[in-house]
Design a protein that fits this description.
With 85 residues, the chain is an alpha+beta fold. The protein has a domain of 51 residues. It contains two helices and two strands; from the N terminus they run ββαα. Strands 1-2 form a two-stranded antiparallel sheet. It is globular and about 50 Å long. The structure holds zinc ion. Zinc ion binds next to strand 2.
């Protein structure tokens, strides 16, 4: 969702709500690329790169999660159902 590369996708957990014994939510995921020969992936750069301030990182994570969910819905891989009674 960040650089556009395909076939190297990992599920990156957003760090919102993490800490104090609380694990990151499995619902807050972003599709980011993994490391591959000769290149660091977006997932590793986000987690270990030290390239963002805390605020920048938070904004980046939110954007990537939103883009992931939008892409999944647009491809028909995630559907929102609504029950009407
Ligand atoms: Zn990437």
């Amino acid at each position: 969702m960040n650089c556009g590369v395909e076939k190297y996708t990992q599920a990156a957990h957003m760090n919102l709500g993490k800490g104090q014994g609380i694990k990151a939510s499995d619902a807050a995921l972003a599709a980011l690329c993994c490391d591959r020969p000769g290149m660091r992936g977006c997932h590793a750069l986000l987690d270990q790169g030290g390239i963002f301030t805390k605020a920048e990182r938070r904004a980046f994570e939110l954007e990537m999660v939103a883009k992931t969910y939008i892409a999944l819905m647009e491809r028909g891989l995630l559907k929102v159902s609504r029950e009407v009674s």
